[in-house]
Amino acid sequence: MLSFTQPLKGMAEFEEIEKSLEKNQGIVQITGCLESQKAHLIHGLSGKTPMRLVIAGDERQAKEIFEDLRFYDKNTMFYPAKDLLFFQADIQGNLLICQRMCVIKALLEQKELTVVTSIDGCMDYLTPLDEIGKKVLHFYSDSVINMDVLKNTLVQLGYERVGQVEMPGQFSVRGGIVDIYSLTEENPWRIELWGDEVDSIRTFDVDSQRSVENLEQIVIYPADDRLGSDRKVSFINYFDPKDTLVFLDEPARLLEKGRLAENEVEKARENRAEEMERTGEMEEAPEFFTTDEIIKFLNKFCMIGMCALEMKCKPFFVKKRFGIQAKSVNPYNSSFEMLTQDLKRLKRNGYRAVLISGSRTRAKRLAEDLRDYDLSSFYSEDQEREVNPGEIMVCYGHIEVGYEYPMIKFIVISESDIFGKT
Predict the structure, then answer these.
(1) Which pLDDT tens digit goes with each residue over 122-152?
(2) Which of 187, 196, 375, 385 is the most exposed place for a label (fewest CB within 10 A)?
(3) Number of other residues whose CB lies within 10 A of the CB of residue 281
(4) Beta-bridge mates of residue 393
């Protein structure tokens, strides 16, 4: 994405930031960061390692970063946190565990990935990644299957046996036909056996029961990320410090949120203990890592702390501090006249500008309309094309809000900056 990364090379601090990342362990603090610009900076620095982990203070902030970051890097996933107060409940059905298992699958299969989560997402106890990998099942079109072993294994992996599969995490057995709805797949699988040999494997539509696609092999991941294990780890431990760069969104606030969540769980534990003592009912209390334990895990990594203002990152070893200048984009309140006047000013000052629209049709029309105002605008889906000073590239995509780097004369304007948030 040279359209977005190349301008950063003109920032005096950028090369120094990259050099500081070559040293192991510790945090590089970057102040002056704001909103959607953080995702842009993350993308610009992501080429240093194959794996990236982004941690925000809460789910809302994590989702906002994820949505913005996905514009620059489609190979980005969101890892949701479980509710530490209502740990056993999943009010979204099994959507949360589906999302988590899809991330685990990607971590086991992919060599390069960016994952965004919250501090809460790092606190619950998990089965080690290598142990989950050992429990993954592989079946081929010529496999031999012991039906009793398969049924027991699926139950051990967290699958629920039902009469007919309707949702992920279920399986059914009818004679020599086994239906399995994996949490990591869009459609369930149907395995037909001839005796104990696989006769066919195919996906099917859960509503119509019609076949969709014949397959030569399938990989079945567990339906639970807390399988029985003597070892318990944090989600952070799923990453190798040698090939992972960790980005912390507002580190001081992040730790504050972690300690707040920790205190809330401890209070809930005390209340539950009193309630259980009164009623005699037993309920498993959630186990989780404390904020101090999370800090110890993180201090093994090379990290970047993105802050709006310079703040103390006391629990972390700060290797270097940098300040960058970034600004938010003033809203145009649906005034095309205001937009064109501003773009003409930016053109005179040698700015490179990128406008992002959520519709290809609107983006192409916007590029055409801007040319009528003697502006050097063009529509492009080639984001490897460098934008030259004075040019305006209009492209398809979405970021929440725009941002500007005055020192390198680069501005990105989102559709919400022009027309307001819908």
Answers:
(1) 998 999 999 999 999 999 999 999 999 999 9
(2) 196
(3) 9
(4) 354, 378
| Number of CB atoms found within 10 A of residue 95's CB | 14
**At 199, is the secondary structure helix, strand, or coil?**
strand
CA 190/CA 173 separation, integer angstroms: 10
The total number of residues shown for the chain amounts to: 422
Contact (CB, 8 A) for 394 and 366: yes
Structural element, H or E, at residue 3:
helix 2-5
Between CA 300 and CA 162 the distance in angstroms is 45
Tell which residue, 283, 256, 334, 192, has the closest CA to residue 58: 256
Q: Exposure string (b/e) for 154-178, b if CB count within 10 Å is 16 or more?
A: beebbbeeeeebeebbbbbbeeeeb
The residue among 23, 95, 39, 77 whose CA lies nearest residue 238 is 77
Look up residue 230 and give its DSSP letter: S
d(CA 318, CA 173) in angstroms, rounded, equals 57
Tens of pLDDT, residue by residue over 294-317, are 999 999 999 999 999 887 777 888
Written as one letter, the residue type at 337 is E
Locate all alpha helices (DSSP H) within 228-314, ordered by sequence.
Answer: 251-279, 291-298
Residue 116's SS3 state is: strand
